[in-house]
Amino acid sequence: MITPDPPYWATEDSIAAWRDHRDHIDAKSRGRSDWYDRYELRVALVERAVTFHPGPGP
């Protein structure tokens, strides 16, 4: 299964703005109550990312 790349924010302020946005707060609340019994969030700086997508076969 191919999953989308995680979101990326350029600054700590942009992370805080996303975290505090009303739509995000509402979605997070719905996720906790309706879909997830647990989840894990990591905030990290990506130094390097490599992706390989195989092409169509012969």
Fold and architecture overview:
The chain has 58 residues and is mostly helical. The chain has one domain (7-53). It is built from two helices and no strands. The longest helix has 14 residues, at 22-35.
Annotation keywords:
single chain; 58 residues; 2 helices; mainly alpha
Q: Helices, strands, pairings?
A:
Layout: H1 12-19, H2 22-35
Spans of at least 5 consecutive residues whose pLDDT stays below 50 are none
Question: What's the structural domain tally?
Answer: 1
What form results from the Cα inertia axes?
extended
The overall pLDDT average reads 82
Q: Largest sheet, described in full?
A: none
- The DSSP helix count reads 2
One letter per element, helices H and strands E, the order comes to HH
* Total beta strands: 0
- Which band does the percent of strand residues land in? under 5%
What's the N-to-C terminus distance?
A: 21 Å
In short:
With 58 residues, the protein is an all-alpha fold. The chain has helices spanning 12-19, 22-35. It is built from 2 helices and no strands.
